[in-house]
Amino acid sequence: RFASSTLEGQWTVIQVWGIWCHDSRNDADYAAALSRAIGQDPDLNFMSIHTPQNANSTRKAFRAYGSVPAWFEEKGWSYPTLIDADASIREQLRIRWTPTYLVVAPDLTVQGFRTSLADAGDLAVKDFLQDIAETRRSWAQP
Prior knowledge:
Radius of gyration: 15 Å
Strand content: 15-25%
Mean pLDDT: 91
Distance between the termini: 35 Å
Structural class: alpha/beta
Shape: globular
Number of strands: 5
Order of helices and strands: EHEHEHEEH
Strand order of the largest sheet: 3-2-1-4-5
């Protein structure tokens, strides 16, 4: 279960993705690396939301894997993932593209976002983390 109140008071990167999505599957290695890197920062959290494309495509959301745990087992990854079974969170967040990464401030405002780390190449995770650090520094200034 998830409530936005669990994010209050902390910086969080939220990944919104789906196994059904070719771009999300291409981004998976980068998302796993991002999760590991964020795990090293006690002041930044990572949360993943797996979602279908829309409420009408819930049966196709996991492709042949059948579940997120099966996908992670094949890939050798493990990080917190919320299952948005009916695309309601996707709709509420107004996500139009997967994968999307949201940078959420302690006051629950979205302070940044990006899509498709894989498109940026080898330095994608490092560059994104630098962008997040700059956003955090800027946000903290009066």
